[in-house]
Amino acid sequence: MRRFCVKGDGGEVMAMVTASALGPTPPTQYTGCHSHGEELFCYGPDTEETLFAPEAAAAAIQTSAASAEPDEGSSTEGQNCHFHAGVDGNIFTVLKQFGTGVIISTAFVHLYTHANLMFANECLGGLQYEATTSAIVVAGAFLTFLLQYSSFRLYDARSRTVASSQSDMGHPESMNGDVSDKSSQTNVQVKEHVPRMDDPLSVLILEAGIIFHSAIIGVTLVVAGDSFYRILVVVIIFHQMFEGLALGVRISNLNTIPTWKKLLMASAFALITPLGMAIGLGALNSFNGNDRSTIIAIATLDAFSAGILVWTGFVQMWSHDWMYGELRDAGAVQTGLGMFALVAGLVAMSVLGKWA
Question: In the sheet where 3-6 sits, what is the strand order?
Fold first, then answer.
């Protein structure tokens, strides 16, 4: 059974987990992992202590922080375990990195550039603040960072509480032991938590940035003039296909949420452009693309969406995958394929920027 576990430092390890160790339906996430000698124990969703197979324990201990030696009762970061649905690791890497290139190129070539052009429209009469687009992009990136930072602080606080209570339940003898040692171990565990793109909040934020401008694309497609309609349709098909691929790969990698929630997230993206088209049809007779309020609204949404995708693309996707994730120590073939796919995504979406 090919089973992958992501440690708190973001590294991914493959473990051969026995059916007897995990039962007929293996959990997708473990918390409060700790070792007794060379055996690794983790708490499953039912809060019962689960013993990992020897292969999994060895892999987890080997990839832990070099400065930490697992001793009796020591604590390690929880495991987020998942399957890759039979997809070869190299293919999965290519899809992920192509999607990363698409997202970053969308942020700059499509959204930022379009917002700049909108704010430069003569119908606005000129803006007193020339850096309006850049300021909104920065605001979008900062608010995205603030939301994620706050959520991870709350997550860490909750994890500290849960880990402490589980440690007390699993090792009652620690009540008479050194409390400061247990507190120190808990703090190390929490600080080792690294945000990943298999976190539901990260993917939801990515989807929000895509959905905002997908709605505008739907409206634009309906109100566009006849001379541009055919070209625009073809470009938007590829545009949405590439973005759907980028988002779909990240949604498929979410293993802490049920399938129906994944389908709901995918459906939201699939329906938002037709919804935008419906809005465009309803406002077709009254829509004025040169109206000052319309220009400002569309430009602001584009710039804000660009800020969301800039943060998500650079920090959560590009930086994490290459500096902290599976590509940090990947082999030459996987690294080369990932780099090629990343550049291909950047180029493909940049070329589409000529028409949309």
Answer: 12-15, 3-6, 80-82
